[in-house]
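Sample 1 of the test manifest.
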Amino acid sequence: MILKNTFAKTPPLGWNSYDYYDTTVNEAEVKANAEYMAKHLKSHGYNYVVVDIQWSDPDAGTDRTNYQYINFSHFNMDEYSRQLPAENRFPSSKNGAGFRPLADYIHSLGLKFGIHIMRGIPRYAAHTHMKIKGTDITADKIANPYSVSKWNPDMYGVDYQKPGAQEYYNSIFELYAQWGVDFVKVDDICNTNFYIDNPYSAEKEIEMIHKAILNSERDMVLSLSPGPAVIEKAWHLEKYANMWRITDDFWDNWDSLKDMFKRCEIWQNHVSTGCYPDCDMIPVGWLGKGFGQERYTNFTIDEQITLMTLWCIFRSPLMIGAELTKLDSQTLELLTNDEVLHLISNSHGAIQVESDNKHAIWFSRDINDNSCYLALFNLSEESQILEISLKDIGINSKVSPRDLWKHENLPPVEDVLIANIPSHGASLYKL
Amino acid sequence: MILKNTFAKTPPLGWNSYDYYDTTVNEAEVKANAEYMAKHLKSHGYNYVVVDIQWSDPDAGTDRTNYQYINFSHFNMDEYSRQLPAENRFPSSKNGAGFRPLADYIHSLGLKFGIHIMRGIPRYAAHTHMKIKGTDITADKIANPYSVSKWNPDMYGVDYQKPGAQEYYNSIFELYAQWGVDFVKVDDICNTNFYIDNPYSAEKEIEMIHKAILNSERDMVLSLSPGPAVIEKAWHLEKYANMWRITDDFWDNWDSLKDMFKRCEIWQNHVSTGCYPDCDMIPVGWLGKGFGQERYTNFTIDEQITLMTLWCIFRSPLMIGAELTKLDSQTLELLTNDEVLHLISNSHGAIQVESDNKHAIWFSRDINDNSCYLALFNLSEESQILEISLKDIGINSKVSPRDLWKHENLPPVEDVLIANIPSHGASLYKL
Amino acid sequence: MILKNTFAKTPPLGWNSYDYYDTTVNEAEVKANAEYMAKHLKSHGYNYVVVDIQWSDPDAGTDRTNYQYINFSHFNMDEYSRQLPAENRFPSSKNGAGFRPLADYIHSLGLKFGIHIMRGIPRYAAHTHMKIKGTDITADKIANPYSVSKWNPDMYGVDYQKPGAQEYYNSIFELYAQWGVDFVKVDDICNTNFYIDNPYSAEKEIEMIHKAILNSERDMVLSLSPGPAVIEKAWHLEKYANMWRITDDFWDNWDSLKDMFKRCEIWQNHVSTGCYPDCDMIPVGWLGKGFGQERYTNFTIDEQITLMTLWCIFRSPLMIGAELTKLDSQTLELLTNDEVLHLISNSHGAIQVESDNKHAIWFSRDINDNSCYLALFNLSEESQILEISLKDIGINSKVSPRDLWKHENLPPVEDVLIANIPSHGASLYKL
Amino acid sequence: MILKNTFAKTPPLGWNSYDYYDTTVNEAEVKANAEYMAKHLKSHGYNYVVVDIQWSDPDAGTDRTNYQYINFSHFNMDEYSRQLPAENRFPSSKNGAGFRPLADYIHSLGLKFGIHIMRGIPRYAAHTHMKIKGTDITADKIANPYSVSKWNPDMYGVDYQKPGAQEYYNSIFELYAQWGVDFVKVDDICNTNFYIDNPYSAEKEIEMIHKAILNSERDMVLSLSPGPAVIEKAWHLEKYANMWRITDDFWDNWDSLKDMFKRCEIWQNHVSTGCYPDCDMIPVGWLGKGFGQERYTNFTIDEQITLMTLWCIFRSPLMIGAELTKLDSQTLELLTNDEVLHLISNSHGAIQVESDNKHAIWFSRDINDNSCYLALFNLSEESQILEISLKDIGINSKVSPRDLWKHENLPPVEDVLIANIPSHGASLYKL
């Protein structure tokens, strides 16, 4: 019945262009990152290459002084109100080829290809009464002039009650299927404000998109952004999407990382096959060039360990934000620790055991055997000795912990496991 | 310094096309109402004739089944992003004449001419990069794609920080001055939600409009809609506007009328020369044709007396909503009781003396002599005897009340004034 | 680890005194209802007898004209700030016996005994500096003067940070264990407002109560009221409680029943062993005597079928609100349909398949075999034919539905199941 | 009619014990401050000596580690639920004398005496069913158990609908009249939260208190705290009170002082005879001893000039927070600049002319002659040259400014007044 859960059986791993390129990524850059992934990351499970926002705007990124997105820009569209890649940025897309040649190349590397879209239909199409494919309806008849994003000027929401609305969504996903798209990140669709305040329901747009994917007959992972997603709608997200952001855009500062524990706390009972609450991209390595300020991540190595430990035990999708071609060896090692990555696809039932302003403890079990995982986090500003009574996590016998970050077996423990953890750091044990 | 207060020394009285015609009024209809006003109402103080919303849309009102306003309509504009009257509806506006011929006609009747506009610049102008008069800036550079009305699809707010923003407003008010406009009702600009939630400040648009009026060098009354206006911004409204709506759209139902007492309560200390909190149009007589359902007002005659009594003692502007050419004699009499209308221009300092769910008492003084006014309202569902101790309103001597609705002198009263008032009715006395 | 889930393996079924008696129930009345349950309901799975609010107040219900709860009442307490049954209402509680004799009697009938308490410590104890058992601390040191219920005047919340706080909760649950209490309904502890607005965290009081139950070493079901519980805290409720109200007090009107579909929608993925979102008592039969207006339920029989169908497929606890000794045969039949009640303990994974303002469809599976359940609800004001494609619920073969309310086998169905359902009614099928 | 406006014709000036003593002030300390005032401040207009919160609690201030106010404290009361001064702190109050001897002493110095009270009736009186003077009603019958302060644990609000409610307030103000009280600061009664969220209307308590003052037949200034007062209720405050706080507690940090400009902006049109929006005490000189940390004000001298300039042109009441006996000469000079203080009683109609994040300009007129006042504030972090066009404030002729802080006449100015103002500083000119 719910086909979507059959083709994303474990959380997707990959790379996304946003953290480094913002709105500016081009074909050569995408290819270079894909090639790096094929060579260095694919064997560890990473396989999605995702082109993020504004790929249809030829001028994207040219006026960062005034705005991130260009107001009232005239981006590339076909006659059916459908956005096409900007040809100056994606030369292979010329002559109506769209993203097909790029997708083909990425597939040839054994990887999968993803794109970002904004919910809705281009505003320009509505104002100039453009066509909807396969209908005699025009864009102005399905666009909702009151349904506008709070942060991007391009689109109007589509009113599901109007004839032609589903046909529009079908038409764009048919195009993506023709291109060979494997993953679609739909934006401006799952955050709290939109859901709660807005009478022009994002819910219905999610359902139309889900239906359009089924109609396209191609497996495409459906990823919803931005967050925070609304927990009241957990059931709806679980029914129609594969992953949904549980935070606003996540960047490399400690307060945001610490805050993620609150978000994972709320969503801990909502991770299941095909359904992944999403902690957002991993802002490590080199970032921010497209924003006009290339920089190395602000996260310390201990904070990066905390990030990877939480994402992996919680089983968030893992989308690397770094420019891959510039990855240093320490970051590469962090991202490719197979003992840690193992949890993403082989653990389940993660719960928060304890949590306060200074520490957190998470616990999960392996799906294959009796082993279980214990993550200890030091959220305070000083190094800290954390203790956890094994009885409190249901373990009544002696256990031999293995430190998955250090690849070390520790001496057997009875009753209480004790760990000395640096400030902002974490330990992850297999028991 | 504050010139605006010099040309609206008392609350404006007149007629507005909205309650009867909605978006559909045409030139012949405006003229017919103006002619009626000149003949029957002018001598009682009414003199503004105001053309309300959508006068630039040739198709307005043609698709009421789907919406009040036509989404993405292509209405009449000049090359400078300025809306012009739809020529099919206002034939005299052809050949670039605009509203000038109609204004001239209305002036010839000894009346004043007003128009409605929406805050902002047409969305279509922004998307097609139209010009701003007197600059080399285009509409897309000053329009704010996030500043959209919650109920009308036509405009984007103008970002006051952008070069060309003030010039745009100057250009439209120069046009209105050329036309001979005396009164501008600016919409989507003073309600609570817009002020409080929206970072794209309506405040600044009010200031730009005020400045544009000064720049035009023509006296134009500035009326702001819709309400409820925000009391925290009372000082700002008093500084820049002549009148501002203190309610959402007001219609002919008792609950709304009863609710107006709460609104007048809040605003009672904010009525002064040139500054008029506005209770909205008076929905009496025949209404609603443009909405597709012509009907006679739902207000009983007692409720109409309550309405007129409150509006007059509070000193709200009085804008008749009825189709004037269909006014029956009873309604005409109600609207032209000179003893009652006298308060609009000759009383001051109205305060609420008492108020609860069942009654209200208001009191004010005449600006010319020692007389004062007392209004008693029965807000309950049954007839009621109301009493007011004269001492409580600062009167320590015997007084002779005159009933201003009945044109009768009552016997002298000492200590306590007593009145038997029908359900939903009111009495108004001069003391 | 989580012992609470071991002694409430299926949703509790029973009777609660509130809907009929409000604050006034006495010992004889409790016994009479228990005796009825033992005779007529026990064999169908009902076994909890719960004494609801104000059992320690000798004067409860004597001044209904002024309030439901008596302000600043001097109810029965021991020297340790612990409430005791009012002896005039529960004669067997004299001489320090407390609820032990009544619990013994109920146990002798093969039933279980439950009581209601308010979160916190009696205000009177705080103001008069009474003792906390087993400590040298007084009530004023642990009571929080700012943590007061919005609807009951008796208690102050307990500040978990204060020495003596846990000891107080331990002391009251030790007393309940001595009495033989099997079920505790804790009130003023799980509704939205309290959790979100209040800095004096109900969360911590829930944790103290959970700990006090463990400390008492007696299995006591923990039920939290009132609702609506906060979905953000689902994980916390699942960790520490057995059942929690997902609505405000539920009564016999259609709008509230219809609204329950929205609440079950939100909570559908949160029903598991030992964890039961609670739709509140079942207001059927005779109700309201303690409120001063005895009446027969306002629910039609179709609405009652809708109620029972939703509660059973969703797996809410079932607590009868009616006075049992007055149950008519139709209501008794409704409450004891074993084919329907079977779902409470033998189905799982209920999800909402469809839902709008006019209908809802729910689906679940049996835990014992391949059979599954389908509930169709007509929420509209007219009778309605509902259709459900079997493929949409993952059934691809011919099925033979059994109507669980009518106890009838229907002809085999392929592809689409069709049912004609009366307004406000429901059908429940086993497939 | 509105007698309250006859005995507070200009904003009150004086001293309040809170900023230095918090809850701990005693008789000797009050007298010492009064003596200083009589000697050094009285001739400049200061004459109110106000004893702030917790004067009836003998233990106030003894347990600052745990709380500011002692939970469930047993403070001094008479048999009629009325608080009396703690005799250990106010020895002259013994034998039922109350505050009479202290008031007499202060009156003997040519000064006036004020006290603080909390809205409502002592919680202890309600729980122990104490009497209400002149009635056979007990405190539990008029106290509202749900109406509790968010920050002080002593009182319950009084329910105006209950017999005995007005009698209670009458009884306490009769007592204050007997004592010779001239000023009552009523707390927990005018802030936003209380007014808006709370169904137990503070409005009605204000009206009861106003009525009790009239009933007492003694002129007592009515001051309401804390803020921020609600602008929607401006009309109500103006009708029943003399002064009301427009901010939460104000302390000596720049952000709060800068924020005051926003508050004065909102309230600028609400200052009139007998009606004074109140910017709160002036935290200069030595502060904080009662809070456990005696300290010299954090305000720089420029910030203090900004404070005094704003308070004086806005015409806030001026209540000194400093310990007077420790006043240094610079602070004394600041507080006693007669040219500046002159505005408090002799200017009117102050309005904000300009305001943004970096500066503010205020303007008012003298009530005696044609002179006017101009205050320029530098709110930025750097010194700044501010300019104001005289035409913009309605002055079309040459003027000769006098600098009221420097006591200097400046050269005549035409068109534009220019001032160089230090960061966080202000200039005040008489024109």
